[in-house]
Amino acid sequence: MKAILLAAGKGTRMRDLTREIPKPMLPVQGRPILEHIVEGLASQGIGDLCIVTGWHAEAIEDHFQDGSRLGARIQYRRQLVQDGTGKAPEVARDFVGNDPFLLTYGDILVRPDTYGRMLSRWREGRFGGLITVTAGEDVTQGGLNFFNERFELTRLVEKPSPAQLERLRAEGWLQPGQPAWYNAGIYVFDPVLFDFTSRLAKSPRGEYELTDAITAMVAAGHVMAGLRIEGRWVDVRDPEVLASLQHDAARSGARS
User: Residue 83: CB partners within 8 Å, gap ≥ 6?
Assistant: First the structure.
């Protein structure tokens, strides 16, 4: 299986840290965030990668080059206009061809075996896509997902407001003691995804949203498998998270 890594955005929440480099190139344990992802994918046999670059694209392309140093084969596509996650994968459409592909944001850190578990889950059925989730996060900052008894996606609510959460509780979607499944930002898709991203309209935020394409896929009858992330999952979303990772790495180094 091939993989697309989304690394085009400016990472504005990182403030001055991304003035000169893209967020995926910020260091964690002495290496760029994106390098951890590339190595993790390659360790699970996913070595054909396409990195979608944009903001300071050359910083990524010069660092990774053809990927051989990390046991991967890397191509690049540039997203010239950063207009949302719904359009970013389309620039790599020629790269994936007619085959399913893994899609990940370039700032999500997980254990490498997560990618292997995704491949195993994908092979369990005939799915249009696979969405990973985690529990215990603030769902108002991302996607809230609901699943049936086979852990297949039935509904996705993007960044629900407090009022929406109250309504979901009143309607029985959110049950006391049950996890609220937060979108973990790593997927597998059949190329049918592009039939839906190509028809996207901009969201109220003024961007094309990948989650809108997923919602449309489910409405059209495509089965979207779910998979819970086990172990490490870190969205390096802001300077505070990055500082925490660097602090943990420093403490670990001091103990060794």
Answer: 202, 207, 208
